Amino acid sequence: MKKYVGVLIFTISMRCSVFAQDSTLLAMASTKSQYYEVLSDGGSDDAAALSKEMESRFEVYNRLFHFNPQDVTVPFKVRAYKNKQDYDGYVAARLGGTRPGVVYLHYNQPERRELVIHRGSPDERSMLPHQAFIQYFRGFIPYPPSWMREGFTIYFNTLTLDAPSRGATTDSIKLSYEENLTWLDTVKNLGDRAPSLQSVLLADITGIPENFQGASWALVSFFLNGGQEDYFRIIIESFMLLSRSASAMGNSESVLNHISRWINLDTLDKDYKTYVSSRKTFTQLLEEGQKAYIAKDAPTAELSFLNALNLKPSRFEPYYYLGLLSYDEKEYEMAEQYYRSALQYDADQALISYALGINAAAAGHTIDAIRFLEQAKILAPERYQERVDEYIRWLK
């Protein structure tokens, strides 16, 4: 009798567990788009916004890879939880432990693969670009060459959803991208410890070398941004050689054979090292521009600031210094545009107000000049009150 009671209790427990899972599933809003199926416990608006974001990411990725969407037989699945307990429970049930923020669950069966997100978590914004690309890449090529997987994941890690758009209507979804140079200093400082080019390309065949992750990013950056058409063409052609059914080793061999067929690997290695050593970080470009500006070398300063702006168009510093250069050249309208752009990217409002005031005065717009200068004094009297009062007396 005790045996049957135990079985009955176990059966009831199992039914309650299934019912609880079904209830959670029923409580999640669902939406299907062209390539994604999204489930969210945050409601239909959150599911729709996330679906649009993922479709936008897919579009950006596929502009480069040009994979055939028909090769994906089931939609990419995304499951989003605003409730941390539900997120942790779902991930732990599949991995034996939880993971922060975002995790991609990859299985041999495509229908089981899914991206699981803890919406609103501190790690979501930084981890979603990483895991979203892995889901896309492995959805088409389950076992790509390791250097491609690591390198392109880092490359796309700065493809982010504009912060003001998160949680807004689906029509306002906007992605932005800045080249990811977080590994540049590390790779440049490796020196003799840097893995050889061939060891990176052969990692799935001969073993993963030390410092592989950064070197993989550098190799991807070299192929895409090195400025040599032959190298860009070769990497694009390599994507077409990747096979859905091949192992990572098989795909690596196919890509390596294609590269070595067209380019001598020693030449490739030399060009790669030259590229890495020549790349400059945002900070380096900014410092070079500042030194050139102080030395009154305007052409060099402008080039440095423009290159810094190309790297990080959402940083205010290049706009501010380009504004100063334009002011020095008496291009006052251009200077004002640069200063106003700097304001859009969180520049010190008092600093920019003062710059706008001096610029307006030089352009002969006295009323605007006084307005900007007074604003600078109000925002930071300890810095600008004395200077502003003296300058306004001179203007009057």
Care to give the gist of this entry?
The protein is globular and about 80 Å long. It has a five-stranded mixed beta sheet, with helices on both faces.
Report helical residue fraction. 55-70%
Order of helices and strands: HEEHEHEEHHEEHHHHHHHHHHHHHH
- CATH topology group of the largest domain: Glutaredoxin
**Quaternary assembly:** single chain
| Helix-and-strand structural type | alpha/beta
Number of DSSP-assigned strands: 7
Q: What count of helical segments does DSSP give?
A: 19
Largest sheet: 5 strands, mixed
- Report the principal-axis shape: globular
Describe this structure in words.
The protein is of the alpha/beta class. It has 3 domains: 27-140, Glutaredoxin (3-Layer(aba) Sandwich); 184-278, no CATH class; 282-395, Serine Threonine Protein Phosphatase 5, Tetratricopeptide repeat (Alpha Horseshoe), CATH 1.25.40. Helices cover 64% and strands 8% of the residues. The chain contains 19 helices and 7 strands. A 5-stranded mixed sheet has the order 1-2-3-5-4, with helices on both faces. A two-stranded antiparallel ribbon has the order 6-7. α2 links the parallel β2 (36-40) and β3. The radius of gyration is 27 Å and the shape is globular. The N and C termini lie far apart (103 Å). Residues 1-23 and 165-170 have low confidence and may be disordered.
